[in-house]
Amino acid sequence: MGCSPDSLRAWCHQAERDAGQRVGLTSAEKDRIKELERENRELRTANEILKKASAYFAAAELDRPFKR
User: Fold this and answer.
1) What is the C-alpha to C-alpha distance for residues 20 and 33, in angstroms, rounded to an integer?
2) What proportion of the chain, given as a percentage, has pLDDT over 90?
3) What are 24-43's pLDDT values in tens digits?
4) Which InterPro entries would you find in this protein's record (predicted)?
């Protein structure tokens, strides 16, 4: 077949998990976890950007002369 025995074994095990014949995560569950991890990374990055922007604008506000 042109693949290693380990690759073929892993594919067979995954096919059995997808069919419900073996315990473990299905391909759909693995894909969903990957998607959630990617989204989590993006949200953490966005959160860091917002924190830095907030700190920058807060510092700029303190540097402005006080108006009465």
Assistant:
1) 18
2) 79
3) 999 999 999 999 999 999 99
4) Homeodomain-like_sf, WH-like_DNA-bd_sf
Q: What is the pLDDT of residue 20?
A: 95
Q: How many domains would you assign to the chain?
A: 1
**Is residue 53 in a domain?**
yes
Cβ contacts of 16 within 8 Å, gap of 6 or more: 22
On the question of pLDDT at 63 being above 80, the answer is: no
Hey, what are 50's tokens? 């917002």
Structural domain for 15, as ranges: 5-63
**Residue located via tokens 């998607």:** 35
Rounded Cα–Cα distance for residues 68 and 16 (Å)? 73
